Amino acid sequence: MTHDPSFPMKVAHDLAAGFMLLTRIPVPATIQSTSTPDLKRSLWTYPLVGTVVSGSGAAVLYAATALGLPMTAAVLLAMASTIWLTGAFHEDGLADMADGLGGGQTVEKKLEIMHDSRLGTYGTATLVMVLLLKATILSSLTISQAIIGMVATGALSRMGIVLLLWILPPARPESLATVAGKPGPAALVVALATGISIAFVCGGYSMGGVVITGTLIGTLFTGLLAYRQIGGFTGDVLGASQQISELVGLLALLGLASIFSA
To answer: How many CB atoms neighbour CB 222 within 10 A?
Structure first.
């Protein structure tokens, strides 16, 4: 087997593409590709990007509690930091998907509403409820459990985006979400292995396994709903899957914590 001297630079370019697409975190020009980023090849980085985002939120949570802030206030600050780091990228997708599926009567109308940048009643209600539920769940956990939950679901929910890209057809072939295309076998395997490994490292076999199961259920539920309603994925569906799978993963962790504390 010959050594590819360009491999480290390809990895750096992939990471740069992943961070530039999913976050607002500045990427040094030295690791940016001089050509158009290979979005398909960079799909394997999504769980790593999610770990950085959620890990930053977990750091804010820990620092806030260390300074004596109540757990609820610390959780809200942590969530605000992750929203700021991503530019509310995934939250916007959740709201748009809720507006489209709730307000449209036909597939064409659902897609049209989802494409509209204006926020409607369904989107507002869904976004508020999901954010409130996540804040309530995290506030109900111990600080260590909340940190584990944030980091693990942050990685796994972005892993779920890659999984949906592999499973579902595009609902709107000309949309920006189809530019990356279906992930190749290597990108899919690396993304799955990375997300699952991070969850097990964070939470061990018990908590890690429960969070993995919860996030996968949330991902597959979102994918099935989108397939039945609009025939596949859009960028909004992928963003919504991140939010929903993160919520279900945290809910599963809360259930496990409640069983052990009973």
So the answer is: 26
Kindly report the CA angle at 119 between 164 and 227, in degrees rounded to 5? 25
What's the pTM value of the predicted model, to 2 decimals?
0.93
DSSP string, 43-93: GGGHHHHHHHHHHHHHHHHHHHHHTT--HHHHHHHHHHHHHHHHTTHHHHH
Beta strands in 186-238 (DSSP E): none
Instruction: Tell me if 240 sits within 8 A of 94, measured CB to CB.
Output: yes
> How far apart, in Å, are the Cα atoms of 75 and each of 142, 147, 190, 202?
11, 10, 31, 19
Whole-angstrom Cα distance, residue 79 to residue 64? 12
The phi, psi pair for 14, rounded to 5°, reads -65, -45
Mean pLDDT by 10 residues, the chain (262 residues): 65 90 86 73 96 98 98 98 97 96 93 92 97 98 97 98 96 69 91 98 95 98 97 96 98 93 69
- For 21, 166, 221, 241, 255, the CA distances from 183, given in Å and listed in that order, are 16, 6, 20, 17, 33
Return all residues near 240 (Cβ < 8 A) that are at least 6 apart.
Answer: 90, 93, 94, 96, 97, 98, 222, 226
